[in-house]
Amino acid sequence: MNKEYIVEQLKDQINKFQSKTQTEKVGTVIEVGDGVAKITGLSEAMASEMLEFPGGVFGVALNLEEGQVGAMILGSYEGIKEGDTVKSTGRILSIPVGEKMIGRVVDPLGQPLDGRGDIVTEKIYPIEKIAPGVISRQSVNQPVQTGIKAIDAMIPVGRGQRELIIGDRQTGKTAIAIDTIINQKGQDMICIYVAIGQKESKIARIVAELEKRGAMEYTTVVLAGASDPAPFSFIAPYSGCALGEYFMDQGKDVLVIYDDLSKHAWAYRQISLILKRPPGREAYPGDVFYLHSRLLERSAKLNKDFGGGSITALPIIETQAGDVSAYIPTNVISITDGQIYLESDLFYKGIRPALNVGLSVSRVGSAAQTKAMKKVAGKLRLDLAQFRELEAFAQFDSDLDENTRRQIERGKRTVEILKQGQYEPMLMENQVAILYALTNGFVDDVAVEKLKGWESDFHKYLQGSAKETLELIASKKELSEDVVVALEKAIKDFKEVYQSS
């Protein structure tokens, strides 16, 4: 009885059995090392296709040769050996994107690094994408307020612009980028900070500072650490840009900071040399210009027909001994819409941000400024340029006429007012107020060494006793007659209070 029942059950299972056939495109590892694998058998692999190695490690096909595929491995390659089977996924390298990414620290594959659980998203975006065409763009016309007086006044950055931050190491490049992120609070801007080959300890300090100031509420940090393999540094900026494109497609404004593209070029050079791509100038491969141009061209201000979103890029480049004519700096300067040039000599003199106003430029110019800022900034640049020219004579101080002496004194005060500490971004209306006071001679009678204290007290006075004047500048965004009258009255009233105290 029991035996017959078992036989019946087996027959029933055999009758119901349906075989499933599944085809997989597979290849075999023939060589592995230094984060790169050579694979044979993947004849139908696509460029930038994700490949699956044993142990759940992914790679990306870079070299498609006649008899083999060269792939970079995204993760630890120690467990991969010759003879291992590699599967083709049929998917171009993509990352998960979505609102849940905001406020998180992720790796270039979109995996969380902050220990705050998994990120559940519904969409994935390819990390490489063709940049928006001319028809879908519009000219840059809205400012990105950095909160830094010298930049907002003389080298304005607009939404959709690419403004390079360039200088030697330890001259305050990252400080400008972080201050800009902090200043976006309440400005309806999503920020993405891409750290390429940076020390994890440095990024931990930056994240802690952003959290302390409430900036992580609208910021995502994409981290390829110094201890991560070179392929992570290579794909990190493209991942950050893809995440930015998700928000841009929804009509939002995004600020992406690439810190820094020098390390990105080094990582690409390393991978290319291991893959035996022919080296060119400074051992970089021939397409190193395209490496950065295809990334930075994805920054754009889209017109209303395409959603009206924007990506503003602040790439950072590190120079060696101030050499802006080196290969990578000249490449990136020619791609971007201007540069903020930071100088070691100015930094060591205590002029911070160490901005060389002569070599810094914004090719978008005053199109990305409010009318109020445009009016005070025009005079400011002229005063500073004249001061730089006359500064050489100032050390002799013998036969200077009254006019020259006055210009030199104004220049000294301009330099002093433009100094600004880190993590102290300033609102546009406060910037306009202090720069108006400076360019119209209201601080000419204040001693240079007392100017910092005077400025600090002036801002406190504006926030307290003259709040309506600040609100007037913020709402009108131009120096109309009534704004000028209110502002001059506030300055004169403060000077009386200040002198009596």
Biggest β-sheet: strands ordered side by side in the sheet: 8-14-13-15-16-12-17-18
* Gross geometry: elongated
Helical stretch tally: 15
CA distance, first residue to last residue = 110 Å
User: Which sheet architecture does the biggest sheet show?
Assistant: 8 strands, mixed
Report mean pLDDT, rounded to a whole number. Answer: 92
Oligomeric status: single chain
Fraction of residues in β-strands: 15-25%
Broad structural category: alpha/beta
Number of strands: 18
| Rg from Cα | 28 Å
Question: Would you kindly provide a brief summary of this structure?
Answer:
By secondary structure, this protein is α/β, with parallel strands linked by helices.
Structure description:
The protein has 501 residues and is an alpha/beta fold. It is 40% helix and 19% strand. The protein contains 15 helices and 18 strands. It has helices spanning 2-16, 149-154, 173-182, 200-212, 230-249, 261-274, 288-296, 327-335, 344-348, 371-394, 402-418, 428-439, 451-464, 467-476, 481-500; strands at 26-33, 36-40, 49-52, 58-64, 69-74, 85-92, 94-97, 105-106, 123-126, 143-144, 157-158, 164-167, 189-198, 219-225, 253-259, 310-318, 338-342, 361-362. The strands form 4 sheets. Strands 8-14-13-15-16-12-17-18 form an 8-stranded mixed beta sheet, with helices on both faces. Helix 13 packs across helix 15 and helix 14 packs antiparallel against helix 15. It is elongated. The N and C termini lie far apart (110 Å). 44% of the residues are buried.
